[in-house]
Amino acid sequence: xxxVEQREGKAEILPGRKxxxxxxxxxxxxxxxxxxxxxxxxxxxxxxLTVPTVTHLHGGVTPPESDGYPTDLxxxxxxxxxxxxxxxxxxxxxxxxxxxxxxxxxxxxxxATLWYHDHRMDFSAPQVWRGLAGFFxxxxxxxxxxxxxxxxxxxxxxxxxxxxxEDGSFRYPAHHEHDAFPxxxxxxxxxxxxxxxxxxxVSAARYxxxxxxxxxxxxxxxxxxxxxxxxxxxxxxGSDGGLLAAPRSLDAVDMAPGERFDVVVDFSAFPVGSKVxxxxxxxxxxxxxxxxFHVVRKEKDDSRVPSRLSASFETLSPGPAGSVPVRRFxxxxxxxxxxxxxxxxxxxxxxxxxxxxxxxxGSVERWRFSSDFHxxxxxxxxxxxxxxxxxxxxRATDGGWKDTxxxxxxxxxxxxxxxxxxxxxxxxxxxxxxxxxxxxMANFDVT
Length: 447
Ligand code: C2O
Ligand code: CU
Ligand code: CU
What we know:
The chain has four helices and 33 strands. The chain is mainly beta. The chain folds into three domains: 140 residues, Immunoglobulin-like; 148 residues, Immunoglobulin-like, CATH 2.60.40.420; 127 residues, Cupredoxins -  blue copper proteins (Immunoglobulin-like). The relative contact order is 0.13.
């Protein structure tokens, strides 16, 4: 059981400036929750901000009442003058609570790196930008027994970009400026766990990094390079939904918003004294650097990456029924009658009443996503495996259980989705948060 309060806090993100954050417990990133697979975790959230919020556990196998549907508002504990609870619920009827709400997470899922963030209808992007996001780590017995790096060598890294005004406050563009950001809002300061371009001192040993792209819209092509140009490698051990069956060595990790990569980096490959930079090859200028590691000492290292990781991992096979997609979702920009641009799925902007798919609980379906643009497609509840990218096989970074997949311009991605957990209404949406707020979301009902 945890209690957490959404409130304003002050942080020194840029040297000598104070930034007001809207944070869980007033901090950004919010507190990291450590939970256990199959053990019910209850998080009681109090909203001491002045705006409604919605908390979603991204990657969680969560009953619909606690999943953070965008209209299931948690209204501020204190009413603003002249307002009643009823007007504040506004035009979005849902399971509205006032002041407090208990979110229940039964977690019938393996060890995984999850995260939580705001999901308020039409306002997720600015509210996450102001700080409403954090890690939620699920562990289990199978993971406990693996000799992976742990303790202070198991490090969650939340990557996101922000812009700042002169006075140090977060600068999120006003609505009329949004046309300048058709790809979503990008910042010009790279943050890792809320700090700009940090330096981390490391031993010449293995580290486990749980990489999360918590940016509104920025994509990363991560690489490691030492000062002498020597490249480093990532050994991927887990994806969005948990550990892989076997590790996979990668020289680059491409990450779209919402995705997680659990990787091990062995700094003993570099001499003590080396400076190793984590670079984003998908960015320009100063944003090409993400953070730096200084290898400062030797250290005894008993950890290793075993050749078999999760024995419970199961590769879904399409079978005869899955050889053709049963449902197609086309993510596309269209223009409304007034020439306003809209982000749509199958030509439809989001409506709370419309349901695009009704898969059965316990079934596996082949879904096809297509797109005119970069859209990180995310499903709540249901985990999926990438089967094909058009006529090509999945990419090296597509392995494991996913809940978010980057669909690139004019690409067609087929996935096998497993509907396990609960019946009820869930979301499929673009995790570019500006696209999401501009209605690129759909309902599916697990029946
Ligand atoms: Cu991470 Cu529906 O969101
Ligand atoms: Cu989610
Ligand atoms: Cu999108």
